[in-house]
Design brief:
This protein is of the alpha+beta class. Helix content is about 25%, strand content about 30%. It is globular, with a radius of gyration of 40 Å.
Length: about 1500
């Protein structure tokens, strides 16, 4: 498991590169764990146990130098001979000291009694010198620091290390240890020569007065040297020491300038303290320094920041713990330094790197459980946001030292065990909008006006760069508040929470409201103000703040602060502050004297009498993948609507919905998170969150090994898996079967299970572990390698001992032991078993008999056809020949019939198995449901054909406001005219009377009318009901049951639009989720079996018309898909993709992309036609997979699309995914589906209607009966039935006790109309309600889920949804239909379910009728609120202009209708004014 988590990097880094994210570079060493690394100039130097590496800043390997060899010489003089690679000596480097100015790298460490080398900094393989010298510890992994310092314009190596006073020269064992601080020469011309610590006639050094010193860090800032150490004295309390040395004239004076301090962290406790890691903050005075401290319990760590500026006074000082030779042992008391701020208390912190960024301090923190954290600290040293920018799947301690990339300063170098990583400090590029960039709350990221993207500041030259505010707790880019002056005038104040950077930019504000443009009182960044009119409640204000070329718009629905009243609950308080008001003395106020901070609301009492309490959560620990179906027990849980989880300093919380609530316990899914503790509280409807509990995220299980590696096909072999964090494993999965694997824990790190039987032999079955909603691969597969070979029978009567077999893989042969030979119907069946324990693919089989060898290379794993040995010549008479031919023909016919019967039996049995074992729980987690927003949903209902009219009637962010149609005088007069009911009804009746006015025209007029009157749904409802009354009372509607059945009039289309507007909320909050689950389940069920690529017919379907009954036999093929990342061919972590042997290349691409999106939550942003696949046929050997190539089978003039079976793709093989844009194909090929005659020239699973030799492909010529496969309709129904039932009951269920207001109002309207028309037949009312709601609205939604969700609908899915929609409408039918054997299958499929559904529908209609009526005022309020919620989302001028085209065309007829209707003269004059206004606009043309 050396590279167990390296693929995870490539998934999180490389694969994310598909959407433009920066990659995580990884260097895996081959010489053991990393012992030290440094960054100097343009290179990175890494020391392991056996190697020294030189890398570039992208972690590309430049040079490596082995540290193994032989030391030749004595203690005082010797050399290190690396030519003896397998030598017994190892040069264990403890000190890496680059001297960039002279292009040198000094390495010192444990070899003999100490050894140092001087290397060329540019090329470490150029060794300039090497000599025996004890500069750093003479033992491997000694605690020391060493680096180059400047003293009086000379360069020296400062070493603070564990040295010795006496040494055994025979074996270099230390007699007495002592820690020393010395300055060593860096060239021969200095006194004493290279590496000497002499100074003229003196040998200056600072020594520790007691043993037990651990040097942690050292650096030089200007003329001061800083050294940090731990004093681990046995007889005295542990303490952390800081030593200062000043740059003096020589070594002696520099070391004698020693001053010292004790660092105390963090709450006054001065015992058992230890420094773990250290980082200086480079910048101006004072000198800030960050350190991680711990006590005797290493899991308790704290991060603190100090001012470590050296003291300015210079009294005589003697340190009690460090001194020089001859100095008195009794010293002065060092000064005590306490932290300026404790930034973070977090378990297992192991390393720190602090970076200054403008006014921010960014602290990168490594942890012992394998995470890299980023802590954002403001100018006041207040920690604001903590995030995780990388994590390993298991517990891997991050190395104590981290370094910043010196060139771009946008990457951090991090070491973990044997790997060095280059991790981006931020992923700005992933944020595609200003809002998303701002929401990241990352000081590294800002919005670049010139580039119109999120970027680092240095990537945005000469342009405005907008970044996050100084207070990251802000939740909106624009906030507002009110000010009330002495005269009672109210001023709106808008504050901009965007920090300007880069080039200067103009700042301005604009206030548009529903009563016109509001006058601004002034604007000065970051505030702008305007005076509000006297009536504020209900006022809608659109605030646009302009910063240079960037506009930020906020829609405000203003509330009257004094009108926000009620009991002082957290909900009321938060509503008050969110409205821009102040909170004072338990009430909402206009004045700004009230508190504006949301934190004040947390101290208020909730409106619930008994607050919820948490007793226990099971489990309390889980992996960072989360946990499904966690159980929380407590008290007063009845009102809980959700569970909130938030870690310390997390800028955003995670919330989980409650799946089951009994009042005393509730079930919920713990979402995925980052390692560490999170606090849990329970959400109430009033916005409060109560109760307190802790959950801990741990590392994920890592599957280390499986033993044994193989099993027999019958199963029941006991297997052992070694796995870390075993308690988080939910399930063991065998890839070849859906049967559940029962396992038991044999120890903390091992589990046992029995292998499951296989229905085919041989094959390779992978084992994975399911943890929450993720599957984790185990490294070794379980193999069943038994080969079956068939040959024609002969007279040789060979026995197993007469044959020998071998299986070839790569360049090796493996014995294939012949176990038995069986004879049946003229065929010899030879079985051999390959004993192999590695993940091998047998590419050829060799059969040896006598001195002959037969090599088989083209075969599959289920059958090998072996044609060997010469059949002896049979000589006989003519009668003998005839008898032989007759017997032969009879035998062949019997064999064909037997095979046919077996095929039919298998098909029927498989259909039965599917029906009885079909899993209805196809989907557990679908993630966020991709609902379309309201305006795009409404637009698809209003204009189902799409087109330019739909686009014109929408207001979209992407549209240029300057190019949108404005409300001119003509549009304004027409809008005013439409508010006259007499004109509007007369216009509608006139248009419908025209013979040239088509159904399409009626739908268009209805939809543009809906858009034009969307701001006033109350008026639209009144006119609609008036038109419906007229239509229902017309003599032509004597057939009352036909009313509202079709869309043949404008008002019927208006009714459809009206229902869609009023029921969008219900659809979004209730039925929409069930619909999405149903569509997802159908899509997954269809993909389980073969799908013909040409006709889209499938084996699993609900529609007989789309049934692929000609499907050939198929098998599941699990592929390992790897994505090529970047231009250097780096491969990502493999994704396991479930494909079928009959899938075409394009179908495999689609399945790979679907798995990619399911795993990462976003689509692979490359078109399908620009993606190509390559199949791995050997180590590093890949062959392109194409839909059609030279090997494709051709029948007549029709070409078969290539499948996985065609390419003989085995299971678990690697398939490489490339983009033709970055990696041009070897052979240029356009998509065959671009051919206009695609369906004529190509075929897939349905054979073309041409003559073919029956012996060419007997598999495809098997007899297939359509009726046998009708069971697939039933198995598909079983799989999706629960989702369909949930959807139906979500539509006609009434809860909690109320139908949506629009349904209740309209059904009451129909009841009233029936009474008015004196219709007593209850069936008529039932049909009216069915025609107006289920038929008019719900069927449209059921058949067109793309109207509701951001998704594509295939023709096949449309066919399945039509079957469900038919069952839905049959549930509302009042007639009972007798179904026979010749009835359509879509009717038969749900025949037994319909009676129950009908009863539920009748109960639904009765419940709505008996519900308390909605008053006129209540329904008007409902419509007003719907208008307000979706105000300013449609382009009304565009709709009015489209409507006027019809008025212009039939102007005379409309004028005559008004005349006959007795319209007042003012109304007719208004119509003429509208015409004059539009006709006068030369820029517009209605032709």
């Amino acid at each position: 498991m050396e590279f167990a988590w390296l693929p995870l990097f490539l998934a999180l880094g490389g694969l994310l590169g598909a959407r433009g994210l920066q990659e995580i570079d990884v260097f895996p060493s081959r010489g053991g764990d990393i012992r030290d690394f440094i960054v100097a100039a343009r290179w990175v130097y890494v020391v392991t146990g056996d190697y020294l590496y030189q890398l570039n800043l992208s972690l590309g390997l430049l040079h490596s130098l082995t540290q193994r060899g032989e030391y030749i010489g004595s203690r005082f003089s010797g050399r290190f001979n690396r030519t003896l690679e397998g030598g017994t000596s190892t040069f264990s480097v403890n000190t890496l000291a680059p001297l960039v100015e002279r292009n040198l790298l000094f390495t010192c460490g444990a070899l003999n009694c100490g050894f140092c080398e001087t290397l060329n900094l540019t090329d470490i393989t150029r060794i300039l010198s090497g000599e025996a010298y004890a500069l750093s510890p003479v033992v491997p992994k000694g605690a020391s620091v060493g680096f180059v310092v400047d003293v009086n314009e000379e360069s020296y190596i400062l070493s603070a290390a564990e040295g010795f006073e006496g040494i055994n020269e025979k074996n270099c064992s230390v007699i007495k240890r002592v820690s020393k601080i010395r300055l060593h020469n860096t060239h021969d011309s200095q006194d004493g020569g290279l590496f000497s610590s002499l100074d003229s006639s003196d040998n200056p050094e600072i020594f520790a007065r007691r043993a037990g010193v651990q040097f942690v860090d050292a650096f030089q800032i200007k003329s001061t040297i800083f050294i940090f150490s731990n004093l681990n004295h046995v007889e005295k309390p542990h303490k952390v020491r800081l030593l200062w040395f000043a740059d003096k004239l020589n070594k002696t004076k520099t070391l004698r300038s020693l001053r010292g301090a004790i660092l105390v962290c963090c709450e006054g406790v001065e015992v058992h303290q230890r420094l773990v890691s250290s980082s200086v903050v480079l910048g101006d005075q004072p000198v800030l320094w960050a350190g991680i401290f711990t006590d005797h319990d290493v899991t308790n760590t704290e991060l603190a920041v100090y001012d470590v500026s050296p003291p300015t006074d210079a009294p005589t000082y003697r340190d009690p713990d460090f001194g020089y030779t001859g100095e008195p042992s009794k010293g002065d008391v060092p000064i005590t330094l306490r932290p300026l701020r404790v930034l973070l208390k977090h378990p297992y912190m192991t390393s720190v790197l602090a970076v200054k960024l403008n006014n921010w301090l960014i602290v990168f923190i490594g942890t012992g459980d394998g995470q890299l954290l980023k802590l954002t600290v403001d100018a006041k040293l207040q920690a604001q946001c903590l995030s995780v920018i990388w994590k390993a799947p298991d517990d891997r301690r991050v190395f104590p030292k981290m370094h910043l990339d010196p060139v771009g300063r946008k990457h951090v170098f991090v070491a973990v065990r044997d790997k060095l990583m280059r991790v981006p400090v931020s992923q700005c590029v992933q944020h595609s909008s200003l809002q998303s960039c701002w929401n990241a709350r990352d000081p590294y990221c800002g919005w670049c006006g010139a580039l119109t993207r999120c970027s680092f500041e240095d990537e945005c030259p000469s342009s405005l760069w907008l970044s996050v505010p100084d207070d990251l707790r802000q939740r909106r880019m624009l906030s507002h508040s009110f000010q009330e002056d002495a005269e009672g005038k109210i001023t709106l104040v808008v504050f901009t929470h965007l920090k300007r950077g880069g080039a200067p930019a103009n700042f301005s504000c604009r206030f548009d409201s529903s009563v016109g443009v509001l006058g601004g009182l002034g604007h000065r960044y970051p505030e702008c103000t305007c005076l509000l009119p006297p009536v504020i409640a209900g006022l809608r204000v659109s605030v646009t703040v302009s910063l240079g070329e960037v506009d930020v718009t906020e829609e405000l629905n203003l509330l009257n602060c004094s009108g926000i009243t009620g009991a002082p609950t957290p909900l009321l308080c938060s509503q008050c502050l969110a409205a821009g008001c102040g909170w004072s003395n338990g009430a909402c106020t206009w004045t700004r004297r009230g508190a504006l901070n949301m934190s004040i609301c947390q101290g208020l009492q909730t409106g619930v009498d008994s607050l919820p309490e948490i007793f226990n959560i099971t489990p309390s620990e889980m992996s960072f993948y989360g946990k499904n179906n966690a159980v929380l027990t407590g008290r007063n849980l009845g009102h809980v609507i959700g569970v909130r989880l938030q870690g310390h300093l997390d800028c955003s919380a995670k919330e989980a919905s409650v799946r089951l609530n009994t009042g005393a316990s509730l079930t919920f899914h713990i979402p995925a998170g980052d390692k560490g503790r999170v606090e849990v509280c329970l959400l109430l409807p009033d916005g409060g969150c109560h109760g307190n509990a802790l959950l801990t995220y741990r590392s994920a299980p890592v599957c280390a090994s499986i033993s044994p590696h193989s099993t027999w096909a019958s199963g029941k072999r006991r297997m052992n898996i070694t796995v870390s964090n075993l308690k988080f494993v939910d399930e063991v999965i065998h890839s070849h079967t859906d049967e559940r694997v029962n396992f038991s824990e044999s120890s903390d790190q091992s589990l046992q299970f029995e292998s499951l039987a296989a229905d085919r032999d041989p094959f390779s079955s992978s084992v994975t572990l399911r943890v929450a909603n993720h599957t984790l691969a185990c490294p070794n597969a379980i193999h069943h390698l038994r080969l079956t070979i068939e040959k024609k029978s002969d007279e040789l009567q060979m026995a197993p001992e007469d044959l020998r077999g071998k299986g070839a893989q790569g360049g090796e042969d493996y014995d294939c032991v012949i176990t038995k030979i069986e004879r049946s119907n003229g065929t010899d069946i030879i079985t051999c078993v390959i004993k192999i324990s590695i993940d091998a693919e047998i590419t050829a089989v060799k059969i040896m008999y006598g001195s002959q060898t037969k090599v088989l290379t083209h075969f599959d794993y289920l059958k090998l056809l072996l044609l060997l040995l010469v059949v002896p010549l049979i000589v006989g008479t003519g009668v003998g020949v005839y008898c032989w031919q007759k017997r032969s023909l009879t035998a062949r016919m019997n064999n064909l019939i037997e095979v046919l019967e077996m095929d039919i039996r298998n098909d029927i049995r498989q259909g039965f198995v599917d029906m009885q074992t079909e899993d209805s729980d196809l989907i557990e987690n679908v993630g966020a449901i991709p609902f379309l927003d309201y305006k795009h949903f409404a637009a698809k209902i209003f204009f189902p054909e799409g087109g330019s009219l739909m686009t014109a009637c929408l207001k979209d962010i992407s549209q240029d406001p300057r190019k949108m149609e404005k409300q001119d005088d003509g549009c304004g007069r027409l809008a005013q005219l439409l508010r006259e009911p007499l004109f509007l009804t007369s216009m509608v009746h006139t248009l419908e009377e025209q013979k040239s006015f088509t159904i399409q025209h009626k739908c268009t007029v209805a939809s543009v009318l809906t858009v034009a009157l969307h701001r006033d749904l109350g008026y639209l409802t009144e006119v609609m009901e008036q038109l419906l009354r007229v239509a229902m009372e017309q003599p032509s509607n004597g057939q009352h049951k036909m009313v509202l059945r079709r869309t043949q009039s404008i008002v019927e289309k208006v009714l459809t639009n009206w229902m869609s507007i009023c029921l969008y909320g219900f659809l979004r909050e209730s039925a929409g989720q069930h619909l999405y689950f149903l569509v997802s389940a159908l899509t997954q069920q269809i993909a389980k079996g073969p799908v013909d690529s040409v006709t889209e017919k499938a084996l699993y379907t609900l529609s007989e018309d789309w049934l692929l009954w000609q499907a050939q036999d198929f098998t599941a093929v699990k592929l390992q898909a790897v994505f090529v990342v970047g231009g250097d061919g780096q491969l990502s972590e493999p994704l396991e993709v479930e494909a079928l042997s009959c899938d075409t290349v394009d179908q495999v691409k689609l399945k790979i992309l679907a798995v990619f999106k399911a795993k990462f939550g976003f689509a692979y942003n490359i078109p399908l036609r620009d993606i190509r696949l390559e199949l791995e046929q050997g180590p590093g050997v890949f062959v392109a997979l194409e839909e059609v190539d030279r090997s494709s089978e051709v029948i007549g003039e029709v070409t078969m699309l290539n499948t996985l079976r065609h390419y003989k793709v085995p299971a678990k093989v690697t398939v490489k995914v490339l983009s033709t844009g970055c990696h041009p194909p070897l052979v240029s090929q356009s998509s065959v589906k671009d051919d206009q005659n695609f369906s004529v020239k190509y075929f897939h699973l349905i054979d073309p209607d041409v003559c073919e030799d029956q012996g060419m492909n007997p598999e495809r010529k098997k007899l297939k009966l359509k009726e046998v496969h009708l069971t697939k309709l039933l198995s598909t129904k079983v799989a999706v039935h629960s989702y369909m039932v949930n959807l139906f009951r979500g539509i006609w269920g009434v809860g909690p006790g109320k139908a949506p207001p629009a349904i209740k109002h309209f059904f009451d309207f129909l009841d009233g109309q029936a009474a008015r028309m004196k219709i007593a037949d209850p069936e008529v009312l039932h049909i009216w309600k069915t025609n107006s709601l289920p038929l008019r609205f719900w069927v449209n939604i059921l058949k067109n889920p793309q109207f509701v969700f951001d998704m594509d609908k295939s023709d096949h899915l449309d066919g399945c949804l039509s079957v469900i929609a038919q069952a839905f409408m049959d549930s509302f039918s009042l007639t009972d239909t007798k179904l026979g054997k010749h009835a359509p299958t879509n009717k038969l499929l749900y025949a037994k379910d319909i009676p129950q559904f009908k009863q539920e529908v009748k109960a639904y209609y009765n419940c709505v009728r008996e519900q308390q009526p909605i008053t006129t005022a209540e329904f008007k309020d409902f419509l007003l609120e719907e208008s307000r919620k979706h105000d300013n989302e449609f382009n009304e001028p565009a709709a009015l202009r489209e409507l006027y085209k019809f008025i212009h065309q039939y102007f005379t007829e409309i004028e005559q209708k008004l005349e006959h209707s007795g319209a007042p003269a003012e109304l007719k004059e208004q119509l003429k004014q509208v015409k004059n206004q539009f006709d006068g606009q030369k820029s517009c043309s209605w032709d």
